[in-house]
Request: fold
Amino acid sequence: MPVSRSNAAIEGLAEVWGSLVALGSTLTEDQFEVPTDCPGWTVKDQFSHVIGTELLLEGAVAPNGDPPTGTHVRNELGELNERFVDTRRALPGRQVVDELDALSHRRLVALRSLDEEAWAAIGPSPIGMVPYVDYMGVRTFDSWVHEQDVRIAVGCPGARGGAGERVTLDRMEASMPYVLGRRLQPLPGTTMRIDIEGSLGRTVQLAVGVGDDGAAWARAVKVIEGAPTASLWMDALTFVRRACGRIPASAVLASSGFAADGDTSLALRFVDEMVVMI
Reply:
């Protein structure tokens, strides 16, 4: 019997949060202070950020204060994030992990108690007004990406091939037509193929066209007739980290397995513009 979207969301969050807590339980206090690829955030700050978002979803009020901010803080939500992060900077890392452990268990209990009407309810999220089940998908990918931030910072790779990575790849893949059509705006008839390597890898094929009303569109397609205008190859983690703005385009070009073919100018412009998560 197929798993419902709400059950899939719960299972994904349980997997990612459990993995993040297990990772945190192995870290030393020195490791908690290691900088990550998120500007201004240490390893401990990553845990604090996940805590802060879930506390907001429980209805908590952000801590008072005027935390230090940088150019990475671009909106009100970013300011709220910084408050939750800053208020935990003086705490031992292990205490922060213990807080996340208790909070994640509490959140999972609350999520399992929701009925289908609550899961379908439309409400605000970082991606706009969406059903609550979609928001929890965002929480799965956001938590997994932050776990990868931690793992890369402390040199402890892992948590690959599961629900967190799958949800993240699905969401980033769905944003690629926007990158090609709205940011690059190539001529109608342009096509692009992106081969993403890994256990959850996939081939993303995009096409640009014009509708009957004369409006241009870009969308994912199952088949590209003939050779694509441009082709790209990269591994799944590189794809995600570039799409999430964690690494510069130059790091993608220098990564193992990266290649481009066809209109390489278009391909390289795509790599420059493919950041879709702020």
Q: What stands out?
A: DSSP finds eleven helices and seven strands in the chain. The two ends are 37 Å apart (CA to CA). The CA atoms of residues 188 and 209 lie 4 Å apart.
